[in-house]
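re: ur question from earlier - yeah i can do the single chain one, its not a big deal. heres the input i used so u can compare w yours
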Amino acid sequence: MSRPETSDKSARHRLADILHRRCPLLRPWLRRRCVVCQAPETPESYVCQTPDCKAVYCRSCWDDMRQRCPACTPREELSSSAFSDSDDDVTYAE
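and the output i got, formated as C-alpha coordinates:
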Protein backbone atom coordinates (compact mmCIF):
# COMPACT_ATOMS: atom_id res chain seq x y z
CA MET A 1 0.00 0.00 0.00
CA SER A 2 3.01 2.33 -0.06
CA ARG A 3 2.47 3.04 -3.75
CA PRO A 4 -0.53 5.38 -3.23
CA GLU A 5 1.42 7.30 -0.60
CA THR A 6 4.34 7.64 -3.01
CA SER A 7 2.10 8.92 -5.79
CA ASP A 8 0.42 11.35 -3.36
CA LYS A 9 3.82 12.69 -2.33
CA SER A 10 5.01 13.06 -5.92
CA ALA A 11 1.75 14.79 -6.86
CA ARG A 12 2.25 17.19 -3.94
CA HIS A 13 5.81 17.92 -5.06
CA ARG A 14 4.65 18.60 -8.63
CA LEU A 15 1.89 20.88 -7.35
CA ALA A 16 4.40 22.79 -5.20
CA ASP A 17 6.68 23.24 -8.23
CA ILE A 18 3.80 24.52 -10.38
CA LEU A 19 2.61 26.92 -7.68
CA HIS A 20 6.17 28.09 -7.07
CA ARG A 21 6.55 28.98 -10.76
CA ARG A 22 3.14 30.58 -11.27
CA CYS A 23 2.34 32.23 -7.92
CA PRO A 24 5.23 34.41 -6.74
CA LEU A 25 3.28 35.51 -3.65
CA LEU A 26 3.15 31.91 -2.38
CA ARG A 27 6.90 31.25 -2.77
CA PRO A 28 7.84 32.02 0.86
CA TRP A 29 5.47 29.25 2.04
CA LEU A 30 6.30 26.63 -0.56
CA ARG A 31 9.18 24.24 0.00
CA ARG A 32 10.47 22.70 -3.18
CA ARG A 33 12.60 19.57 -3.00
CA CYS A 34 15.53 18.07 -4.85
CA VAL A 35 14.15 16.01 -7.73
CA VAL A 36 16.71 13.26 -7.03
CA CYS A 37 16.80 12.78 -3.24
CA GLN A 38 13.81 14.89 -2.13
CA ALA A 39 15.93 17.04 0.24
CA PRO A 40 14.26 20.41 0.98
CA GLU A 41 15.46 23.36 -1.08
CA THR A 42 18.12 25.48 0.60
CA PRO A 43 19.98 28.63 -0.46
CA GLU A 44 22.77 26.31 -1.71
CA SER A 45 20.39 24.32 -3.92
CA TYR A 46 20.76 24.56 -7.69
CA VAL A 47 17.72 25.53 -9.77
CA CYS A 48 17.88 24.54 -13.44
CA GLN A 49 18.17 27.63 -15.61
CA THR A 50 16.19 26.17 -18.54
CA PRO A 51 13.13 28.47 -18.87
CA ASP A 52 10.40 25.81 -18.68
CA CYS A 53 12.24 23.45 -16.30
CA LYS A 54 13.39 25.12 -13.05
CA ALA A 55 14.00 21.70 -11.41
CA VAL A 56 15.65 21.90 -7.99
CA TYR A 57 18.74 19.89 -7.00
CA CYS A 58 20.63 19.78 -3.72
CA ARG A 59 24.28 20.64 -4.27
CA SER A 60 25.51 17.04 -3.86
CA CYS A 61 22.94 15.62 -6.32
CA TRP A 62 23.74 18.39 -8.82
CA ASP A 63 27.42 17.45 -8.60
CA ASP A 64 26.56 13.73 -8.85
CA MET A 65 24.53 14.47 -12.00
CA ARG A 66 27.66 16.13 -13.39
CA GLN A 67 25.81 19.43 -13.49
CA ARG A 68 23.32 18.27 -16.11
CA CYS A 69 19.58 18.35 -15.52
CA PRO A 70 17.98 14.98 -16.31
CA ALA A 71 14.55 16.64 -16.18
CA CYS A 72 15.17 18.68 -19.32
CA THR A 73 18.18 17.04 -20.99
CA PRO A 74 17.26 14.63 -23.82
CA ARG A 75 17.62 11.00 -22.78
CA GLU A 76 20.16 10.21 -25.52
CA GLU A 77 22.48 12.90 -24.11
CA LEU A 78 22.27 11.27 -20.67
CA SER A 79 22.94 7.73 -21.90
CA SER A 80 25.94 5.99 -20.40
CA SER A 81 27.93 6.11 -23.63
CA ALA A 82 27.37 9.82 -24.22
CA PHE A 83 27.60 10.77 -20.56
CA SER A 84 30.56 8.83 -19.22
CA ASP A 85 34.14 9.85 -18.64
CA SER A 86 36.86 7.29 -19.19
CA ASP A 87 38.23 8.14 -15.72
CA ASP A 88 34.93 7.14 -14.11
CA ASP A 89 34.46 3.82 -15.95
CA VAL A 90 34.66 0.75 -13.78
CA THR A 91 35.99 -2.52 -15.11
CA TYR A 92 34.89 -5.76 -13.47
CA ALA A 93 36.90 -8.95 -13.54
CA GLU A 94 35.13 -12.04 -14.79
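The chain is about 35% helix and 5% strand. not sure if urs matches, ping me
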